[in-house]
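From the methods appendix. Each design record in this collection lists the tokenized structure first, followed by the designed amino acid sequence. Records were kept in a plain field format so they could be parsed without special tools. The example shown here is representative of the layout used throughout.

RECORD:
FOLD TOKENS (123 positions):
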């Protein structure tokens, strides 16, 4: 497991106080029942080819604020963000809320939690 810096962890902790998280099990249920949502992988470009959760689109953390409104113009669209471990996606979820998006969730434990739960990924 990665050792994150104290400053980064403090930012994540503050963000998690303001956002909603979803478990891998709850996300799987929503995907299986074809609930309307946009799943966004916010990992770096070099992480995407290693695999991603089915139906996800890729908008890396470094560009999402710039490009999100082109991809998802409706601020009421349900969105789930995820990264590797659930930290960066919490920061992104917080930012998207600040931009006016109203139904944002961050995947608790990230893609690692998804994999640990036994769910498939696409390459």
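DESIGN:
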């Amino acid at each position: 497991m990665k050792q994150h810096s104290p400053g980064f962890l403090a930012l994540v902790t503050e963000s998690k106080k303001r956002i909603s998280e979803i478990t891998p099990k709850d996300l799987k249920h929503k995907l299986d029942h074809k609930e309307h949502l946009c799943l966004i992988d916010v990992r770096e470009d070099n992480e995407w080819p290693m695999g991603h959760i089915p139906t996800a689109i890729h908008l890396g953390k470094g560009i999402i604020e710039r490009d999100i409104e082109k991809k998802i113009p409706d601020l009421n669209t349900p969105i789930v963000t995820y990264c590797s471990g659930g930290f960066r996606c919490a920061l992104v979820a917080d930012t998207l809320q600040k931009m006016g998006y109203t139904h944002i969730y961050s995947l608790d434990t990230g893609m690692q939690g998804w994999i640990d739960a036994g769910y498939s990924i696409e390459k």
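APPENDIX NOTE: Helices lie at 6-16, 24-32, 64-71, 88-98, 110-116.
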